[in-house]
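Input record (Table S2, row 230):
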Amino acid sequence: MIFAANFKTNHTRKSTELYIRELNEKLGTKNPEDKIYIFPPSTALNAYEGDFTVGVQNAYATQNGAYTGEIGLEQLDEFGIKTILIGHSERREHMGESQEKVATKFTFFREQGFEIIYCIGEPLYIREKGFEAVMQYLLAQFDGIDIMYENIIIAYEPIWAIGTGRSATVEEISTTHRALKKAINDKPLLYGGSAKPANIKEITSIAGVDGVLVGSASLDAESFSEMILS
Ligand code: PEP
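Output record (phosphoenolpyruvate complex):
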């Protein structure tokens, strides 16, 4: 299974160091086949050591240059970062990242050989229209995206389940993942949206779920390690 922690705009360099120390202590008994990713805020990127991969939540599609407030390859290289989240619904919504911009970023980081966790997800009004509308919406988020890329992991994250405490049901995850798996040629597919210790077993038991992308419940090393070890 894949367990990815998205800290969003939480944690500092200091608290990330403490988090990683605690995680390393707790994960001594983890299944060696499980793969862990941590996405701290950019200010807390570092060359941390442990049985996990550190990635960046966002970066600009450039080596360096005049892009005030952004970071590019030069800054990521300093810490050996080769993994990136692209297409998260919060960036699409709050930072106005259009599908075109998301696709440009994807192509740039694909060409750099990055491992990309590519996020897709539908808003509630689309889910309420029914499954056909959901799939149409989700598949449109593959426009301009090379889903055959060898280093892609896809994360299905229904927007209405992110940070709300309300996970999608087993039935909703199961039917959506089954349809998505066909569309993505069986690439690794994560579920994200209020995954937590209380529901992790149920979610990871669903066919077509290869892991989880976790926000809130990943902020605490104890809760995240409980999910990994459960
Ligand atoms: C996310 O934002 O990727 C996420 C899944 O958040 P949460 O676990 O808090 O719903």
